[in-house]
Amino acid sequence: MILVKYIAESGVLSRRKSEEAIKNGYITINGHKIKDPTYEVKITDNVFMGNRKIFKTEHIYIVMNKPTGYITSKGDPEGRPNILNLLPKNIVEKLDPVGRLDFNTSGVLLLTSDGSFAYKLSHPKFEVKKIYQVIASKPLTKKIIDSLIDGIKLEDGLVTPDNIKWNEEAPTHFSIELHSGKYRIIRRLLKIFGIFVKKLHRSSFAGINVKGLQFGDFRPLTKTEISKLVN
């Protein structure tokens, strides 16, 4: 989070007053005067205005093992089950999912109250890596795998997976690593070859996994995990 927003969100000053305080040299970080409003505040930084330490609003960071059969958006005209219903009522209104997982896709879903954090992990320019475990409707071949690795042009652009793990001994199963955030991307890639997805599970998102979590369970991210993701 940039410094001017960090101070404004602390409630100490307005956004405009925060920028003035920074430019006038009233803000120190780790003992050093910082006059750049766009300085990226790290989780380990100590921010002071004079002798007053500034704490930003405490945000919530959660990873859930999303089950299939749930949507991840806040509203749904069809009234389908929502992953927000699996969370405590005292925090649910503060949280937004980071990106989306389809109704029929399970696995790693991050939720947070921190808009800057969500933006950094969901915007395409940051090329955040995701790993999916896929079970296909029929066997894949080496030719198909090679075509996927070379890149497939969809109607909204070229998609080139970062890595694919596949074995001829289990030809309907494979693992695919992507940084693209295009909508329903794996289903669309396989459909080109007349193959449909039977099961799709996101096993990793930006290095975060759901080991030890049952479907529908969640846990807060550790300080170490948050620090790695925001820096």
Fraction in beta strands: 25-35%
Kindly identify the CATH topology of the largest domain: Alpha-Beta Plaits
CATH superfamily of the largest domain: Pseudouridine synthase I, catalytic domain, N-terminal subdomain
Radius of gyration: 21 Å
Which word captures the global form?
elongated
Main sheet overview? 8 strands, mixed
Calculate the terminal CA-CA distance, rounded to whole Å. 10 Å
Written account of the structure:
- This protein is α+β, with helices and mostly antiparallel strands.
- The chain folds into three domains: 3-53, RNA-binding S4 domain (Structural Genomics Hypothetical 15.5 Kd Protein In mrcA-pckA Intergenic Region, Chain A), CATH 3.10.290.10; 61-124 and 209-230, Alpha-Beta Plaits (2-Layer Sandwich); 129-205, 2-Layer Sandwich (Pseudouridine synthase).
- It has helices at residues 3-10, 15-23, 89-92, 115-122, 142-150, 185-191, 223-230, and strands at 27-29, 32-33, 47-49, 52-53, 61-66, 96-97, 105-112, 130-136, 152-154, 157-159, 163-166, 173-178, 197-205, 218-220.
- The strands form three sheets. Strands 5, 6, 7, 8, 11, 12, 13 and 14 form an eight-stranded mixed beta sheet that branches. The protein has a four-stranded antiparallel beta sheet with strand order 2-1-3-4. A two-stranded antiparallel ribbon has the order 9-10.
- The mean pLDDT is 91.
Describe the structure using short key phrases.
3 domains; 7 helices; Alpha-Beta Plaits; alpha+beta; single chain; Structural Genomics Hypothetical 15.5 Kd Protein In mrcA-pckA Intergenic Region, Chain A; elongated
